[in-house]
Amino acid sequence: MTIPKKVRLVEVGPRDGLQNEKQPISVADKVRLVDDLTAAGLGYVEVGSFVSPKWVPQMAGSAEVFAQIQRKAGVTYAGLAPNLKGFEAAVEAGVKEVAVFAAASESFSQKNINCSIAESLERFVPVMEAAKAHGISVRGYVSCVLGCPYEGEVPAEQVASVAAELYAMGCYEVSLGDTIGTGTAGATRHLINVVGTRVPRDRLAGHFHDTYGQAVANVYASLLEGVAVFDSSVAGLGGCPYAKGATGNVATEDVLYLLNGLGIQTGIDIDQLAAAGQRICAVLGKENGSRVARAILASRG
C-alpha cells in the first residue's frame, strides 16, 4: 500500500476539543477559533454540537456560532447531531453536514448514551432519512475501536460490524476513534485490515487520542494502510475523561508536521495554525497541548 499523496484533516477542536472544558467559553471566542482555523487553510471544521446543553453545557450556543462564522467557499462546517431533534436544530442553523456516533463496545454504549449498540443505530434511522430528504451529508463515528475503559480490548471484527452498519445506513465516511488512546501502530494496522474488508478504505478516517503518546505513530500506521482522512484538534484540545490528567485528541499541528515531513499535501499553513491554537489556549488559560506548536512558538521568541 502506498502512502496517500493528499490528506484531509477534520478539525474537531471547536466541538470535541472544547466540550469538556469546565469554564464557560463565549460565542465570540468560538467564532474566532473557527475563523482562525479556516484562515490557516483547514477545509473541514466541526463547529459545534446540537445536543441538550443540560448534558454538554459548552455546546450551548452552537447555532449562534454557525450564524456568526465567516463562511469560506469550499470549507465544510459540520455539526454533531446524534438524534432527530438535534438534526432539526442543525438544519435550522444552516448546517450542510452532520455527524452521528456509535460505540464498538456494549459497556461504553450503555454508560455513554444509555442504550445498546443496536438501539443507538436504530436511533439514527430517522436522522439518515431526514438527511437524505434535505440533501445533507452524514459522517459516522465509532468509538472505543482500540480499547474500552470498561471491557479492555475490543475485537476488530466487532468494530467492523458497527462501521459496516453505519456505512450501509448512508454515512459517506466512518471515523474510527481510539477513545482512550491505548492503541498502538500494530493494532491500528490490524484494525484497518479487518474493517477494510467491510468498508472501503477510502471511506475510513482515523481519530486517535494521545493518552499513551501513540497517536502520531497510529496516524502513520494508518497512512501505510491507505487511510487519507484524520480527525485532530488544534493545540491538542480535549482531555480524556477516562484517564485522569491524560491528553485527549491528537494535536492538529503534530499531525500536520508529520504530513509535511512526508511531502503530503494538506493546504494548511502550520504557522497560522500554531497561532490559532495559542490564541484559544490563552482564552482557556491552559498550556498548548501540541509539542510542535510549542516548538514553533519558542523558535519565534
From TrEMBL:
EC number from the UniProt entry: 4.1.3.4
Record-stated family: Belongs to the HMG-CoA lyase family.
Record field: catalytic activity: (3S)-3-hydroxy-3-methylglutaryl-CoA = acetoacetate + acetyl-CoA
Main EC class the enzyme belongs to: lyase
Gene3D superfamilies: Aldolase class I
KW Lyase (keyword) present: yes
Gene Ontology molecular function terms on file: hydroxymethylglutaryl-CoA lyase activity; metal ion binding
Cross-referenced SUPFAM superfamilies: Aldolase (SSF51569)
Keywords: Lyase, Metal-binding
Species the sequence originates in: Metapseudomonas resinovorans NBRC 106553
Protein name, as recorded: hydroxymethylglutaryl-CoA lyase
Residue ranges of domain Pyruvate carboxyltransferase in the record: 7-274
Any GO BP: ketone body biosynthetic process
Pathway: Metabolic intermediate metabolism; (S)-3-hydroxy-3-methylglutaryl-CoA degradation; acetoacetate from (S)-3-hydroxy-3-methylglutaryl-CoA: step 1/1
